[in-house]
Design goal:
alpha/beta, TIM Barrel, 23 strands, about 15% strand, about 40% helix, 5-stranded parallel β-sheet, 8-stranded parallel β-sheet
Length: about 750
């Protein structure tokens, strides 16, 4: 039995690539030093997989920022505004990823969206009518040869032609069908080059195949691959899918001359049934995704062996694979000093998953009697033990909920009038999303406290001083609704996890979210509850410093759950309700302490939305929207509830978002060119809205005129009485200078546009 990995994490077990990249951006290291760090990581990853006996080791799964951006650059999908900067290829690449503002010009970054149902973000390729799609780079070939130089045979990995065209943004008249020929020829050129280099396999990732497909989509896929596969030569081509099943196109995949088909047997609800119903061709290799590439719990060998045995009855050639790239799990348990050995035995991060492959390969070599294999016996004992902690009080409280607990009264329109009279804010009120820059001294203060180097009193006093400074600066530049800055928070989910009972935490279990941004998801270890207030002290202190409204800042239950590693013994719905009850308690405590505006962020609401629309309500929205409503349904009419969402495609669930019954919703909008405002207008959105007017994931500072233009576009479709003015996300990752300069411009733009409004807007 052979084994395969779809992709491997790339930022380094201690985030070496992140830190090297950020030093390069600051001019502290050279491009050659950055490239050396990258090369060292690639070799380390290949060798680790080789040592664990992985037979199909990926190359070209490494990226300096994003794999889809790599693919776009490989095929010359570089908009003219970036080419016109006259930068080196890598600098142009980073300009597309981060934006650019300097002596060569001023351009925004490409749009950024969530990668299917994960917390990873990809850069959206942008294709206009003049784009010439052709092979223009060498990255897959360079890394294939680099691995060979280190005596590692790899299968190059590349985003597939169909997924590339489906995820691209088309800015002209031409659409995907108009680029079929040149796209196919570009991939043909890749195959020709790999043939010349002596590659055995090419893995083409096609996650778009697990979404709802029309007949036109299937025809597009067939047209692309009829041409691409005609040029295979001696290279075998693997069509790799993940994040779901391929129910709409399984017969098409079987009929096309692929040499291998990779299917997800973890998230693919119908994957096994498809194989049972249609069988599997004898002339193809089934790459069976049986080890979860998204969650961190150990694989159940007994279940996997039964699955493999059944698949073996349908497929003549079988390879064990991960369900998706291991990009979505942390690197290794080796640095986790905080976790006990008893706890760690339940987990498998990327390195441990490699060992699971090795153990499964060994067990399958003696499949007639797996009990002769010690790893099998240990694994079976592990799954017989009780690993999750129950809390009867939490379970009883959740079971007692009724429909009234999910309904806020009075209705939106009535309480909206009450809130407008109470707060008396000007038209186009200005605010931020919550966090302010986490500077070196902020991180050092938190680190010192965690290590016991300073007392809790010293730690808190530092935060109080930062809050006072932040409030004063917000007042000075003229923001209307203020925030405390969140200096006590390491992460918008991890912080709350640390304050809730039922979570456990890691030291270095970092997962890439986008570019150099990594998150450390907490782990749900039992029933969730709140034993003490989590945010009240700092919010109340900020409120005491100003006469202006101060928002209490919370993360919503769905986002906390979606950005955690969840349990596997209860449903996501049950976990979400438990978290919602805990956050509800915090909301009511904030209100009792005179915090009259409370923002409950649901940045990840869309993240776990099933990839097929037919599953949306039954499997997700039917509990995700009520979980949010449960959080705020108990507040007074004059308490204003805000929420925030970012970097997802919300247009198709805009009515469900309105049904969350918040009073104000802020959206990421700047990177998507304010596209969501049309959808807000079309559906008759009742909630007040704040589409982000500038991109905080870029270091560039927007001008006042640029911001005024954005606001003017919004006012073409959104009533001024319902429009808020804000950045598109929190400011945690930005530098101090650019943050305050951008906010000054934001306030000035709002004031100037406000002066043009009719007197009674």
């Amino acid at each position: 039995m052979q084994t395969s990995i779809i992709g491997y994490p790339r930022v380094g077990s201690l985030r070496e690539l992140k830190f090297a990249s950020e030093k390069y951006f600051k001019g502290e290291i050279t491009i050659h030093e950055l490239q050396q760090t990258a090369a060292d990581l690639r070799v380390s990853h290949w060798k680790r997989q080789q040592e664990n006996g992985i037979d199909f080791i990926p190359s070209n799964d490494f990226s300096f920022y994003d794999h889809l951006l790599d693919t776009a650059c490989l095929f010359n999908i570089v908009p003219q505004r970036y080419q016109a900067l006259g930068l080196s290829p890598l600098e142009t690449y980073f300009a597309m990823a981060r934006g650019y503002q300097g002596e060569h010009g001023d351009v925004k970054a490409l749009a950024m969206k969530k990668w299917y149902n994960t917390n990873y973000h990809y850069m959206v390729p942008e294709i206009d009518d003049s784009t010439s799609i052709r092979l223009a780079g060498t990255k897959p070939f360079d890394e294939f040869l680099e691995a060979r130089q280190h005596e590692v045979a790899t299968k190059p990995v590349l985003t597939g032609a169909f997924t590339l065209l489906k995820l691209a943004k088309y800015t002209g008249v031409k659409q995907a069908d108009d680029f079929v020929h040149e796209t196919a020829e570009a991939y043909v050129n890749v195959l020709e080059k790999l043939n010349a280099l002596g590659a055995d396999w090419l893995q083409l990732d096609e996650p778009a195949l697990v979404t709802d497909l029309t007949q036109e989509d299937i025809a597009l896929f067939s047209k692309l691959y009829s041409r691409i596969l005609s040029a295979k030569g001696s290279v075998k081509v693997l069509a790799q899918t993940y994040f779901g099943d391929v129910r709409d196109c399984y017969p098409t995949l079987q009929a096309l001359p692929f040499d291998g088909i990779g299917i997800d047997l973890v998230e693919g609800k119908q994957s096994l049934e498809l194989v049972r119903r249609y069988g599997f061709p004898d002339d193809k290799v089934l790459f069976a995704g049986v080890i979860n590439g998204k969650n961190i719990w150990r694989n159940n060998y007994k279940n996997t062996l039964a699955l493999v045995q059944e698949l073996g009855g349908h497929a003549r050639h079988l390879v064990l694979s991960s369900s998706c790239s291991l990009l979505h799990v942390p690197y290794s348990l080796q640095h986790e000093a905080k976790l006990s050995e008893e706890t760690k035995r339940y987990f498998a991060f990327a390195e441990e998953k490699l060992r699971e492959f090795a153990e499964l390969k060994s067990i399958l070599a003696r499949a007639e009697d797996p009990y002769t294999n010690e790893p099998y016996r240990h694994n079976e004992e592990l799954f017989k033990s009780v690993r999750f902690l129950g809390n009867e009080t939490v379970q009883t409280r959740a079971a007692a909920l009724t429909d009234t607990d999910f309904t806020r009264l009075p209705a939106f329109a009535e309480r909206g009038a009450i809130q407008k009279a109470k707060f008396n804010l000007p038209p186009l009120p200005t605010t931020t999303i919550g966090s302010f820059p986490q500077t070196a001294d902020v991180r050092a203060n938190r680190f010192s406290f965690k290590k016991g180097a300073i007392s809790e009193t010293q730690y808190k006093q530092f935060n109080f001083d930062k809050i006072a400074e932040c409030i004063a600066l917000q007042e000075e530049i003229g923001l209307d609704v203020l925030v405390h800055g969140e200096y006590e928070r390491n992460d918008m989910v991890e912080y709350f996890g640390e304050c809730l009972d039922g979570y456990i935490f890691t030291d270095h279990a970092w997962v890439q979210s986008y570019g150099t941004r990594c998150v450390k998801p907490p782990i749900v270890w039992g029933d969730i509850s709140r034993s003490r207030p989590m945010t009240v002290e700092y919010s109340a202190y900020a409120k005491s410093l100003t006469d202006k409204p101060v928002k209490g800042m919370l993360t919503g239950p769905v986002t906390i759950l979606n950005w955690s590693f969840p349990r596997e013994d209860i449903s996501l719905k049950d976990s979400a309700i438990q978290i919602a009850l805990a956050i509800r308690d915090e909301v009511l405590d904030l209100e009792a302490n005179h915090i009259e505006i409370i923002q409950i962020d649901e940045a990840a609401l869309r993240e776990k939305l099933p990839l097929r629309k037919s599953d949306w309500h039954a499997e997700y929205l039917s509990w995700a929207i009520p979980a949010f409503r449960l959080v705020h349904s108990g507040v007074k009419p004059d308490t204003q509830i805000h929420t925030h969402m970012c970097y997802s495609q919300f247009s198709d669930i805009i009515r469900e978002i309105d049904d969350m019954d918040a009073d104000v919703i802020t959206f990421e909008a700047s990177r998507s060119d304010l596209a969501i405002i049309e959808d807000i207008n079309t559906c008759g959105f009742q909630t007040e809205v704040g589409p982000g007017v500038y991109d905080i994931h870029s270091p560039r500072i927007p001008s006042v005129d640029e911001l005024k233009q954005g606001l003017s576009r919004m006012l073409n479709t959104i009533d001024a009485a319902k429009l808020w003015v804000n950045p598109d996300c929190g400011l945690k990752t930005r530098g101090v200078t650019e943050t305050w300069a951008s906010l000054r411009h934001l306030v000035q733009a709002a004031k100037e546009v406000r002066e043009t409004l009719p007197l009674h807007s």
